[in-house]
Amino acid sequence: MTKEELYAKIALTISNYQPGDLMGLASLSRLVGELNHHFAEFPVPKRFLEALKAFIDQTITSRSANDFEETVTRAFDMFQVWREDLEPPRLATIETNLADFFKKPSRPPTNPDAEPTNRDPDHELVTNETFQLFLTEAEERYNQAQALLLELESHPGATETIVTLFRIFHTIKGECGFLRISTLGELTHAIETLLDGLRSARLAVTVEIINGLLGSLDLSREILALIVQGQTEAIADLPLEPTIRALGKLAQAATSTDPFATEAMEDQGPALANAEPTDRPIESPGKETAITKADQVVKVRLSKINFLVDMVGELLIALGQVGDGSPALAQIRKITRTIQYGAMELRTEKVKHLFGNVRRLVRDLAQKLNKSVRVEVFGEDLEIDRNLIEQLEEPLMHLVRNSLDHGLESQADRIAAGKDPVGTLTVRAERRGNHIVIMVGDDGRGLDPTRILAKAMAQNLVTADSAKTMSQEQIYNLIFVSGFSTSENVSHISGRGVGMDIVRHIVQGARGRITIRTELGRSTQFQLSFPLSTAIIEGMITRVGPSYLIVPITSIIESIKVDQTKIATVNAAVEVITLRDEVIPLVRLQEVFGVVASEPPAMTIGVIVELSDHRKFGLLVDEIVAKREVVIKTLGPKFRDLRGISSGTVLAGGAIGLVLDVDQVIELSQKSA
Amino acid sequence: MEITKRKLMVGPRYLTFLLEFEAYCMEILRVKELRGMSAITPIPQTPNYIRGVINLRGQIIPIVDLRLKFGLPFREYTKRTSIIVVELDVEGEPMLMGLVVDSIQEVISIPDDKMNSVPYINARVKSEFIRGVATTDDGIKIVLDVVKILSSEDFVIVQQTTAGSTSEAEPQGVK
Questions:
Q1: A673 Cα to chain B: minimum distance (Å)
Q2: CB < 8 Å to A645, chain B
Q3: How open is the CA angle B34-B39-B41, to the nearest 5 degrees?
Q4: pLDDT of A67-92, one tens digit each?
Q5: ipTM score assigned to the predicted complex
Q6: Residue of chain A nearest B57, judged by CA positions
Q7: Do residues A427 and A355 lie in contact, with contact meaning Cβ atoms separated by under 8 Å?
Q8: Which of A639, A661, A666 to mutate to test the interface with B (most CBs of B within 10 A)?
Q9: Burial class, A514, CB count within 10 angstroms (exposed 0-12 / middle 13-18 / buried 19+)
Q10: Residue-wise pLDDT tens digits, A447-460
Q11: pTM
Q12: Is the distance from CB of A373 to CB of A361 less than 8 angstroms?
């Protein structure tokens, strides 16, 4: 056959190939072999075709390689570009590509002892199933280690803590060896050596040792993170050597007969003057095993759970499209809702880990700021949705940083004010009805409304006129406005004025609310409240022109029907009504969303809503359609900057409704003069 | 992978469509689906070429009118007006978007050697949106870089406000 005929036949065979088609493979191999005859004079293409034939033959015998088709197609395409009459430089490039093509092994080498020098074992691991498991367990272990280290610092004599810590790192070291992660393995070995010194009582627990161990724990997490992201080259930039050396020095330090050692044990440094409050029970291993026996714990991939939750959500949408009718349908809906809650429970995690990080942050910051702080934690066993925990991490840490930096005073100031020289930071998680409430509070200096107002006016965030009519609550909420900050010197820990605004943004993004309770000179409390089921909300479906706008029930106080004549105009611009002695400003959603009015409203219909800062407004619509549970569908990252609309939903009949964010809607309405 | 199966020596495949009687084409690899026009829900605060969103079997996807994006006058949608659903990577996640075109023509193969880069084709479409121009048996077709066109989108008009004062930015009307 001529070359061209062979090309055509080969292409046809490839396109007809189905995995497992041995006949096809055999004829492909034969064709490639025949093709090779045409290139007897040309070494590079000849070798390439030989390699290609070998690859095909290998696939015949081992019957694997699911990217076979892709590889062969690519190879063939590449090959066809070759022509003997090409320009030398172009020809050279193509020939180099051909020569290199089959050098990359698509499967690990058959000789297990062969250690290819140019392959980075760290890089291979990311796709390995064993590694995934190691990763999840390592994360848990590091969290546990961190909690234990903090405990050890306040109870330096706790030998069981040291033993557990040693065991944790010993296990990790072993796994590093098995998975051939050399960098982390070396670091863990150094950590283990230091812990061994503590375990054998050759060393005593000192602040330096705890700092060293915590620092190397952070470094370990960093290395893992880089490996996961496939950026193993970046590991070289980490201070691995210096950290290992520092750990080594600590391990060689004083023996227990050293007088400094005993002093170090008693003097825990300025950070923690007292041990942890006794109302927090220390983990007893016996208790835990009892619980595990009663209710087995299984490991499931998060992706499977997410899939289940999403599918149930789809089920609810589909049910919603069926329309009301039989009681059987209502029953099905109820059951489906229950399944939904059940599925979402699968995705929950204890807040313990999140709060553990709070302890760590307080410890580090208190040391840095030279303040004396104790942490009180309540409700760390509460289980909430993983996604929510992830979202909460940043705002929570920022609030804690804020408390330590600005809220809590220095020891001297506290004593002068007659307070306990040790400040208290309280973190609490609890479930209240349909909501999760997370509270972060301190017994520091509280928020000063006068200072806040003064700063806001200086930053032009508030005019003198509006300042007069602001309630205390509204003044406190000014701290959430972007660009606000009351610290004279912007510390690098917090105070740049961007943090609080982001905190509120994230909280609202999770459909939550944040409220402030404070007493000047005594305390400050931030309360974050989130609805339990974030994917399904109950909303009032309204129609404004041709658009369906949905107002979340949680924001609605009541619905109203008002006579046009009852609407008064204030300041020649703002429409209001009086409801049971309360004057409520009205906002016509038609105007806010620029909807062209098709018919003038006969009756004015609307809903009274309450914002996060407890202001009330009346939203006027064309029609109130129904109160319904809707499944939230995100509009996508491209619409993230939309103001007034938080997400979308699919309504019965397939129409798309837009879910409103009432706070932003009011904001929008006040922008259009 | 359906495409690779049929791929003979002829070259990568492109979907051709019409905008104001001019033929354009785009790589078929990114095309997930072709649909006729369906009800579009408008979204406020978006530029005019973002028509809104549609319901694609339960998923809400944004719709971009290519005519408006390229500055052509808006044309009422007819039976032939179609939506090309493409998949893009946005912040690492695959995302679907729909493009409104006057009509869809066919799928053709354009071998790489028939693709030419052109310094200037017409002022209408920005040169960075054009991957090249292809000479085919049916004439010259402009090959668009859809990823570039859609990635450079700012879907939301962000209101600029000076702190505290009211600004006169109007929200987008319903189109």
A1: 7
A2: 43-44
A3: 115
A4: 777 778 888 877 777 776 666 777 77
A5: 0.78
A6: A654
A7: yes
A8: A639
A9: buried
A10: 988 888 888 888 88
A11: 0.50
A12: no
